[in-house]
Design a protein that fits this description.
- This protein folds into two domains: 33-115 and 211-249, D-Maltodextrin-Binding Protein, domain 2, CATH 3.40.190; 118-206, Periplasmic binding protein-like II (D-Maltodextrin-Binding Protein, domain 2), CATH 3.40.190.10.
- Helix content is 36%, strand content 23%.
- It is built from nine helices and 15 strands.
- The strands form five sheets. It has a five-stranded mixed sheet with strand order 11-10-12-9-13, with helices on both faces. It has a three-stranded parallel sheet with strand order 5-1-6.
- Strand 2 (40-41) and strand 3 (45-47) form a beta hairpin.
- It is globular and about 55 Å long.
- The chain binds arginine.
- Residues 38, 40-41, 45, 79, 95-98, 142, 145-146, 183, 211 line the site of arginine.
- Arginine (ARG) binds next to strand 2.
Length: 252
């Protein structure tokens, strides 16, 4: 019995050491990185005409994988379950995901690869134009996003949470909502499809703060984080990053 206990403790200690500092990265020895995303967020991720996840984030993470000598397999899932799947179902997540203090409690983030802000999508004739005018409104958001967190704080708001941002936009078009709060680039993409009916206002005028997008990885996996950061840095230096911005986002 004592022996068994000793063996158990030894195994536990080794396991503990493996997750501690100086340990191997969680993807060491793996040829393929399993990367989670939520392909409902154009131009960062969407399902293309062939039915495959595509977009800026997808191209970026494939390029990161290449620099790390690994291939990339994309797992399309709900945005809300990405963070809790990191380290189990997926090795990392890229999903236009904003670095927040809350998320940092459970995952580690790479250096930021993009800066954004929440936008407010409105019917063209809407008079909503300030934080105070959002009060008591019916606000649509994608569940578990920073837009959801912001909307939930607005006094008197009724927040409808959707699995897909586009479904919120459809309910706005059908007059079931007064506005949708979602990140800048998807907001612009959705509004461009309905430019007669909808407009998008910059969240800066509502006092929303800038947000930094980063790749989320298992907590404490410093080796993986630094490998991903070096890859990102190389992609900035060799011009790939700018090329991808130009191809998918079309600005800067
Ligand atoms: N930036 C926002 C957040 O981190 C929204 C991200 C939504 N991304 C997605 N692929 N659906 O909460």
């Amino acid at each position: 019995m004592k022996k068994l206990l000793a063996v158990c403790m030894c195994v536990m200690l080794t396991a503990g050491m493996l997750t501690g500092c100086g340990s191997k990265s969680s993807v060491a020895g793996k040829d393929t990185l399993i990367v989670g995303t939520n392909a409902e967020f154009p131009p960062f991720e969407y399902v293309n005409d062939s039915g495959d996840p595509d977009g800026f984030d997808i191209a970026l993470i494939k390029a990161v994988g290449e620099k790390m000598g690994k291939s990339v397999e994309i797992q399309n899932m709900e945005f809300d379950s990405l963070v809790s799947s990191i380290g189990s179902k997926i090795d990392m997540a890229i999903a236009g995901m904003t670095v927040t203090e809350e998320r940092e409690k459970t995952v580690d983030f790479s250096d930021s690869y993009y800066t954004a802000v929440q936008y407010v999508i409105l019917p063209v004739a809407s008079e909503i134009n300030s934080y105070d005018s959002l009060q008591n409104c019916r606000i649509g958001v994608q569940m578990g996003t920073t837009g959801d967190f912001i909307a939930s704080e607005v006094a008197g708001s009724t927040v409808s949470r959707y699995n897909k941002g586009v479904d919120a936009v459809n309910d706005l078009l059908n007059d079931r909502l007064d506005c949708v709060i979602i990140d800048k680039n998807p907001a612009e993409t959705f509004v461009s499809i309905h430019s007669e009916e909808l407009k998008a206002l910059d969240g800066a005028q509502f006092g929303f703060e800038e947000e930094a997008y980063a790749i989320a990885m298992p907590n404490g996996d410093t080796q993986l984080v630094s490998a991903v950061n070096s890859a990102l840095e190389e992609l900035r230096k060799d011009g790939t990053y700018d090329e991808l911005v130009k191809k998918y986002i079309g600005e800067e």
